[in-house]
Amino acid sequence: LKALAKKSGKNAQAINQAAVLGAGIMGGGIAYQSASRGIPAIMKDINQAALELGMNEATKLLNKQLERGRIDGLKMGKILSSINPSLNYESIANSDIVVEAVVENPKVKAAVLKEVEQKVSADTIVASNTSTIPISLLAKDLARPEKFCGMHFFNPVHRMPLVEVIRGEKTSQETIDSVVAYAAKMGKTPVVVNDCPGFFVNRVLFPYFFGFTRLLQDGADFVQVDKVMEKQFGWPMGPAYLLDVVGIDTGHHAGEVMAKGFPERMGKTTEDAIDVMYQAQRFGQKNGLGFYAYT
Ligand code: NAD
Questions:
Q1: For range 179-195, the mean pLDDT
Q2: Among candidate residues 190, 204, 113, the one with its CA nearest the CA of residue 152
Q3: Is 109 annotated as a binding residue?
Q4: Is the pLDDT assigned to residue 126 strictly greater than 80?
Q5: What is the ipTM of this complex?
Q6: Residue 208 and residue 52: Cα distance in Å, rounded?
Q7: pLDDT band for position 189 (cuts 50, 70, 90)
Q8: Atom 43 in ligand 1: residue holding the nearest Cα
Q9: I need a surface site. Which of 109, 136, 143, 213 has the fewest CB within 10 A?
């Protein structure tokens, strides 16, 4: 990673202050990860309760590290004080990078990104953590598309090693180098990928999910499928449990975008198990009921 950071560091801009827009599952995790690797992060949301939740999650993660003896109280205090929750847009003005992690809605994201550009300097890099929306589409109305790219983290951010760095049509090489170096500094493994719906990981993951829902239509039992994939095949978890972790609502939405983007390749059937669960509001771990029940 150090070699990667050094190699890409040649043309990279220094990133000493980050800002994250959205303090949800992903935004909170990105701010925590950045701060814990020594790059202070402003965590901006429109909702005070989300900010409190984001800070609570960071405190919980740090407490675990403290219990395991990986950090001391001093270090914990230092990391916590370098995550700065804010409701105020002006707070992001001096950031070297702004990572947008608001809801997965193209209209909301486009409006937020345009606002961000007006709040920061011309040198600031702006990145989106979108899971599925093409970066060139989000860049369409931006004044500085060369300073914009995708920076796609995975859930939970502090555990998942990969970060997809997505090159939009007009993204400059300097922006890509800077974001690659920042991801490496955060302790992640960046991969640079081309722009398309779902980028790299979701193009691999969704045919797998849709293959799984087809198995169910053929009469398979989801518990058995999970058991085979986890216990016999050796993956960390099976597809049903993974969908519960991701969130059936998130999976449903991303699945629709992927099926629309690649109708021939995704292999989605109409009214599959993900659609049925979504309509029944069984969203997985987040609301206690998905393929499995969580009490
Ligand atoms: P979330 O619903 O947990 O959080 C979204 C947050 O954005 C909320 O706290 C909301 O108050 C805030 N927000 C909404 N509008 C805002 C605005 N104008 N300014 C500032 N904050 C605003 O969502 P999430 O799961 O963290 O997802 C965020 C993004 O990350 C989405 O684009 C999603 O596709 C992507 N993503 C999610 C996952 C996942 O597994 N959840 C994985 C990778 C990428």
A1: 97
A2: 190
A3: yes
A4: yes
A5: 0.98
A6: 36
A7: very high
A8: 154
A9: 143
Question: Which of these CATH numbers, 1.10.1040.50, 1.10.3720.10, 3.90.580.10, 3.60.150.10, describes 203-283?
Answer: 1.10.1040.50
Pocket test for ligand 1, best of 20, 21, 25 (most atoms within 8 A of CB): 25
Percent over 90 (pLDDT), the chain? 92
Backbone angles phi, psi at 61, to 5 degrees: -60, -40
Instruction: Give the number of other Cβ atoms within 10 Å of residue 187's Cβ.
Output: 12
CB proximity list for 37: less than 8 A, separation 6 or greater = 185, 186, 187
165 - beta bridge partners? 151, 192
Q: Is 104 annotated as a binding residue?
A: yes
Whether 253 is catalytic is no
What is the arithmetic mean of pLDDT over 20-26? 94
Is the CB of residue 106 below 6 angstroms from any atom belonging to ligand 1? no
- At 253 the three-state DSSP class reads helix
Does 71 score more than 80 pLDDT? yes
Residue 165, helix vs strand vs coil:
strand
Encode pLDDT of 249-287 as tens digits: 999 999 999 999 999 999 999 999 999 999 999 999 989
What architecture does CATH give domain 2-194?
3-Layer(aba) Sandwich (3.40)
Q: If we measure between CA atoms, which residue out of 69, 45, 65 comes closest to residue 55?
A: 45
Give yes or no for residue 112 CB within 6 A of ligand 1: yes
What is residue 145's DSSP assignment?
G
CATH 1.10.1040.50 placement within the chain:
203-283
pLDDT tens, position by position, 85-111: 999 999 999 999 999 999 989 999 999
Residue 295 is predicted with a pLDDT of 84
